[in-house]
Amino acid sequence: MLQLPKYSIGIGDRFAHQGSAQIEAVLRAHEKGIPLAPVWNKSHREHAITGSEPGDVRVEADNAVRARGWSGPYFVDADHIGLKTVDAFVASSDFFTLDVADSIGAAPSEDELARFLDRNKQHVGQLRIPGIDEPFEISERTIEDAAGKFLVAVKEAGRIYRHVAQIKGAESFITEVSMDETHEPQTPTDLFFILAAVAEEGIPAQTIAPRFSGRFNKGVDYVGDPALFAEEFEQDLAVIALAIERFGLPGNLKLSVHSGSDKFSIYGPMREALRKFDAGVHLKTAGTTWLEELIGLASAGGDGLEIAKEVYKVALSRFDELCSPYASVIDIDRAALPTAEIVDCWSRDAFAATLRHDPLQEAYDANFRQLLHVGYKVAAEMGERFAGALEKHADVVAQNVTENILKRHIFPLFPKRES
Q1: Which pTM value belongs to this model?
Q2: pLDDT band at 287 (very low <50, low <70, confident <90, very high)
Q3: Bridge partners, residue 115, by sequence
Q4: pLDDT of residue 419
Q5: CA distance 372 to 311
Q6: What class has domain 7-288?
Q7: CA–CA gap between residue 156 and residue 417 (Å, rounded)
Q8: pLDDT band at 16 (very low <50, low <70, confident <90, very high)
Q9: Where in the chain is the domain with CATH 3.20.20.70?
């Protein structure tokens, strides 16, 4: 079976111009003793908005790998797909994020519930999980509650997995099960029984994306209690280690953190937990690269700055249209956004400083950044004008892309190889 390495990073690239700059960050990380695999990810929604096709991501990844001489493993992720959208991704992808959010909370049939309870009755009593101090009291009701929330979703994941495996061959792709797009975080016992169901469905999941406490808004820092997150993250690592042993899941099964871009306040606790459990992780940075393109264009001045300003002004005028699809993962104070007239007067340094995620800089504006994060549709509508600007100012854009991935994401999160 295709194997995902211990550490991996999802590097979305909405306009397919930054593959080489992204690989450069991974190459530099390897030089510093941080081995990780790049995973190019792009969702059906992003393809629809930018007018690209799933095969375009494979072309970009392969070209970047050849251009930069990358010899390690790399992958192309069919990000957040379901049965209705997966077929377009099968030929070009070798990583599939199975999005079953719509099925979370759907009630299983009485027969399905009874069978799941029967297969898991041996866990009734005290469940001791190495790495977690206190045991969990498991009753039949505990199992039924977990199944009532997640069993239908896992079965849907099984249908998607088997569909891809029938076409592509089970050994030729990596499977991730995404359970993060729900309102309530999963408890350790929820995750334990989710993984029991994953194993029963025969899904060889190598990553699992649970829902944590707090908000993982697009492109900005974690909103919540970092100490609570750290506790949940450690508990989930412990559950995964036990589930691998109990249920025969792949030995490299690891956590996947979605909307992981710029979660600076929790990277430190994650890094310490990964060391403590000698565990791997997959981080999805998604739209961060698109924002670095805008920062690069603004920093270049001239036509680059004009395009960056125009993207903001149009996005501001189309606020509801652009924000509504992302309502659950953004939190923008509309009244606090700078007006189009104010932004029109900004210098290149002022625009870049307002957008760049540097909390120590007084100019940084999380509202401004989030609106532009979801405003990539405006740039897509510019077509060749935007693409041409990226090519004209490729050097300054690439520098921003590389340094963002390397210095703000890889270095703070991923542990170095032990010498």
Answers
A1: 0.96
A2: confident
A3: none
A4: 53
A5: 8
A6: alpha beta
A7: 37
A8: very high
A9: 7-288
